Amino acid sequence: MADNQEPGQLIIIGGAEEKDGDCKVLREFVRRAGGTKARIIIMTAATELPREVGEDYTKIFERLGTEDVRIIDTVTRDDASSSTYLEAVGKATGIFFTGGDQSRITSIIKDTELDTLIHKRYAEGAVIAGTSAGAAVMPDVMIVEGDSKTNPRAEVVEMGPGMGFLPGIVIDQHFSQRGRLGRLIAALAQQPAVLGFGIDEDTAIVVNQNVIEVVGSGSVTIVDVAEITHSNVDNLLKDEPMAICGAKLHILPDGYRYDLKNRKPILERIIQPLAAA
Amino acid sequence: MADNQEPGQLIIIGGAEEKDGDCKVLREFVRRAGGTKARIIIMTAATELPREVGEDYTKIFERLGTEDVRIIDTVTRDDASSSTYLEAVGKATGIFFTGGDQSRITSIIKDTELDTLIHKRYAEGAVIAGTSAGAAVMPDVMIVEGDSKTNPRAEVVEMGPGMGFLPGIVIDQHFSQRGRLGRLIAALAQQPAVLGFGIDEDTAIVVNQNVIEVVGSGSVTIVDVAEITHSNVDNLLKDEPMAICGAKLHILPDGYRYDLKNRKPILERIIQPLAAA
């Protein structure tokens, strides 16, 4: 719930979340953004089909009972200073980044007034969510693009600046569905973060300060390279295969939690309240 | 090298090994099986195209200088008692299982005279190799079939008895190329072994007693669940997602070695002899 001056939450979705039926992941977003009283902004910067995508999400959020839903379609950086947009975002309790191309989000919004304002709303308690490309932009360093179904090599992934909502980690999406372990590890090896989150489709991590909770039908794969015993990364040319020894691996489904500060799963299962069933 | 009464070696290949050009992985098999003096048997039980597949491998092994290459195409269990076949296998220094369907290998050969004899030749020093389906059959419990690109759930993999050359582990093949982390972990969770080896295409593990060495252009992903801090596997229904906390993950490319007994990578790089370059 926003407007209570507690820090906000992030909902980082691995793409292809269920849009008919129960909509468990999107339901979680709406509930945490304020439920039927939420004021939701749909950010369509990533997609080349902003109208269709925006309207699809609008219908879902309205079906769940939220009356105040607005689409913001920034096409240029100028759009990201539009006073109409800024006014709407200034009141938002939930801001949702759609899928598409993550570079479009950063190139249009990063370091604009809109960017500053979204971060301000987040600090004030708004929920920031993103799916697929909208998930990719959450860290300070993001996967711009890369190859799936490969072993880790430097050349399989291109990194770039992200939106910085969750610094110090790496996010990959469509994780199991596209076979992205190699890509996640290649990304991890190329910047200072030691924690990589591979988020499955129809699955999200809810980040509430240092506690991460998994929601959805798939799993979240966490690779922790903080205490590796060996890596050959410093000596590699671009097309050579990486070696990593002693990484830690956790695979967490719905209801599991993870302590981001101590880098450990929280091993008591959550009992879901009936309302969230 | 066989016929020296030292125990044999296994060469377990993740499929799609290079068959033109340098043939690094197949070259390793031929060299270890006795080089130009090797007596090689190609076992085509797994494939429905035994003639084509057998002839392809014959050409490669002959190109590398081995003159004594024979194809054994067991179609029925009766074939696996053929005295001609048994005589040939009794003298073999290298036995190579082709790809295809791993169930065909076990259903035709397991617990036959041929099976007993191959194990005897292995104990006497022969090199046993297998690619793809031929790799899958190496453990005592094998992946019969399963889904790729999924998170781990019991239903994604079917296990069955393997040929038992390398007990106590799980092998998966085409690992990175088909996105099989979830499948490997689902397999690991369903039998007593704690070590899973995901072998990439054009990549092999050479097993020489307790030392495993990686050869080829891809990587070997090792998942060690011996010291996990949590798993939900005992309470799961078939379609529910598994949780695994605190598994160990190693990704090892060509030249890296692993100590099977102590379950640790051996962290001195091998300097390849010029001949193997």
UniProtKB/TrEMBL annotation, chains A, B:
Catalytic activity line of the entry: [L-4-(L-arginin-2-N-yl)aspartate](n) + H2O = [L-4-(L-arginin-2-N-yl)aspartate](n-1) + L-4-(L-arginin-2-N-yl)aspartate
Keyword Hydrolase: yes
Swiss-Prot/TrEMBL keywords: Carboxypeptidase, Hydrolase, Protease, Serine protease
EC number: 3.4.15.6
First-tier enzyme category under EC: hydrolase
UniProt cross-references to Pfam families, sorted A to Z: Peptidase_S51
SUPFAM superfamilies: Class I glutamine amidotransferase-like
Superkingdom of source: Bacteria
Gene Ontology molecular function: carboxypeptidase activity; peptidyl-dipeptidase activity
InterPro entries linked: Class_I_gatase-like, Peptidase_S51, Peptidase_S51_cyanophycinase
Function description: Exopeptidase that catalyzes the hydrolytic cleavage of multi-L-arginyl-poly-L-aspartic acid (cyanophycin; a water-insoluble reserve polymer) into aspartate-arginine dipeptides.
UniProt similarity note: Belongs to the peptidase S51 family.
UniProt-recorded name of the protein: Cyanophycinase
